[in-house]
Write a structure and sequence with these properties.
alpha+beta; two-stranded antiparallel ribbon; single chain; 5 strands; 2 helices; 105 residues; 37% helix
Length: 105
């Protein structure tokens, strides 16, 4: 596999993997989030509850993969995308999946 040396290439790769995860595990029902890579030491990733990214298609949620943990195996990063996809699925379907201000889920 080519080394991902730029932010844009890494985000493009994660976007491609997210689309594959969406098709395989969610029957392509998940809305497409804006994927970001930012430092979040308290989590491997997160998805925003609100649609915060303005695009030509409307407002999108953000799915962030923590830059602090990008050195994990690709399998673990994919597992994080699946986990965050579960949160997206829950939000889209009115399922409460967190408690105590999002700490437990």
């Amino acid at each position: 596999m080519k080394e991902l040396t730029s932010y844009n290439r890494a985000v493009q790769y994660l976007t491609k993997v997210f689309k594959l995860v969406n098709a395989e595990f969610f029957n392509s029902e998940l809305e497409m989030p804006t994927i970001t890579i930012q430092s979040t030491t308290e989590a491997y990733g997160h998805v925003t509850s609100g649609r915060i990214w303005k695009t030509e298609q409307g407002y999108l949620r953000e799915l962030n993969i923590s830059a602090d943990y990008l050195d994990r195996s690709v399998e673990n990063i994919v597992a994080t995308l699946i986990h965050e996809g579960c949160h997206l699925y829950a939000m889209q379907n009115g399922i409460r999946d967190t408690s105590n201000r999002g700490i437990y889920h």
